[in-house]
Structure formats: structure tokens, C-alpha cells
Amino acid sequence: MAEMRAGPAPYIYVCTRMRVRKSKLLPKEEYLRMLNMSLPEITRSIEELEYKREIDELSASFHGIDLIEIALSWNLAKEYQAIIAITPGTLKAFTQAYLRRWDIQNILTILRGKRQGLKPGKIKEILIPAGELDRVFLDRLLIEDSPERIVEALKGKKLYPVVVKEFPAAVQSNSLSHMENELYKDFYQNLISDANAMKGGKLFLNYIRLDIDITNIKNLFRLRMDTFEEDAREMMIPGGTFTVEELQKLHSIPDQNEFIDALMARVRVKTLLAVLDTLRGDKPIREIEIDLIRVQIEQMEKMAKLNPFSIHPILVYLEKKKYEVFNLRAIARGKESKLPTDRIKGYLVM
User: Fold this and answer.
1) Is the pLDDT of residue 160 over 60?
2) Minimal CB count within 10 Å: which of 69, 112, 125, 126?
């Protein structure tokens, strides 16, 4: 712990690099400018940013929205791998553990794509090989001819035990939702174990708990929007500042104002309290989620300022870079689909 706070030379170096990288991320004004562009203009604008190499590499084979999608995915994966390469000691271990969440997203994307009969190339466009499963391994999965063979190919990987256990029920129910819940529960349980086992882990654990809390609060609002009246405990992730039983009690409160009052009574983060107080009306779930994401990023920034030579500056950059890619993708997709500007804007995390 003392080493993490004191910041030996390698930690100072990598955390300083993260702040420099963060300073190059797009400001809100740039997204607003792009909202008034055509798709070709957006492509040219992206090419002038940190995505030029990927655009140039791919422009001979892809065009339009496909070019943007793949270039953004490649850039994000390369950036994350570059960060792992320069990160020292326990910071590297924490970063690698945190980025394994992309393995879950990629495997679920491949399985869903295969079940829908999508061509491997279309599935590959939206994969982000930033975790333990690299591009070469994911390419091997894409050429497998059935979901069952994909599951078997995961043998020996960290998420295999959950996938192989949950897959038969997923086939029977024709849904991967329960498997997805179990994969994320396992992911966070492993993160907590890693944080407790390694030097400096308390700082990492503080962020993990914040992440779990925000995820569980999002899930509570989603369930209420879907008028889900069953036991919500299976949908909740253990390990945050709320117990699963507390979350179930909150879910069982029928009145929206009473639900928010009870939730606010348990929250200690001022910015989260302020946001929750604005959610008493009929706000769309996407806007609620974006409000909660903004709170999470703001809290991460505060953690990074308090602990400038720790895992926190790295996590802040990882998350903000992810949302830059998500924002650019949302703008490009929205323009391709000819959505109104205000509607596209509603999907952006700014």
C-alpha cells in the first residue's frame, strides 16, 4: 500500500503517461461538431485524430460505417495492449485482470452472432480483443462451425468453467442472459480476490466496489422499467457496498419515489445523491444509465487525484478511452441510420 502511494519511478512514469493520453481525448465540443457532419466527413475527422493508422490500414478493404467500426475497435484494443506493455508490477496485474471483462463481451458477441447466422466477418467488426483472448484466438473461434465447438475451444481459459456450466441451460432457454450474469459475477469475484491478494489492492478494491454499486443500481432501474416482479437477487453482483439482500428489498418497493428515497438513504456519494434525486420522473433508461456513468467517471477522477501514482489514473484512462470509442461509434451508426441529431446525442457519454 505504501509503495502504491509513494509512487516509485516506474509508477510515476506510467501514471504521468496516462494523464498525457487522457488530455488528448476528445472534448464535448468535438462530439457536438461531429453531430452536424455527414458520415464521410466524420470518417475524415476521425482519421485526423488518434485513429489515422487504423483508418489508413483498413481503407483499402472497408468503407463507410464498416471502416469506422473496425478502425475504432482495432485502435481501442491496440491502445489497451500498449498500456499493459508499459505498466509495471502490480499495476500490470490489476490492469490485465480488469481488462478480462472484454473476454466476456467478445465471447457473448461471437455466440450470439453464430446463433443469428451472421458471417464471421460481420461478427469480427465489433469484437475488441483487449483482454486475455487475443485477436488470433478470437479469429479461431470465429471459424468454428457451431456454438458447441466454440465452448469446447475455450477449455483452459479463465471463463471456461462458467461457460461450460451455463451453456446447456442457455441453449434450452434460447437466451444467453443468465450465462452473461454468471460470467460477470465470476469476473467481479475474481477481481476482488486479486485485489485482496496483492500489495496495493485496497485502492483497486475501492474502484471495484464503486463499479459493482453503479452496475447494480443500473440493474435496479432496468428491472423497474421492465416491470420485473420476481426475485432480483440473481441479477445482482455481490461485493459492493450493498448486500444482495438489500438490493432485493429496494427492488421490491413498488412506488418510484419511495424506492429512490430508500436508495438515497444508503448512498454516501454526493454526486450520486444529486443524480438519483433527478430520476423520479419518466426518464428513459438510456439517459439514467448515462447519468450514472458520468457519476462513476467523476468519482474515478477524484480517486485518481487522491492517489496519483496508483491504479486509479490507469482505470480512469481505460474507461474514458472506451467511452470515446463508444461515442464515435454511436455518432457514426446514428448517421448511417439517419437518426435525428438529438436522438444520437442522447446516446453519448460527454
Assistant:
1) yes
2) 112
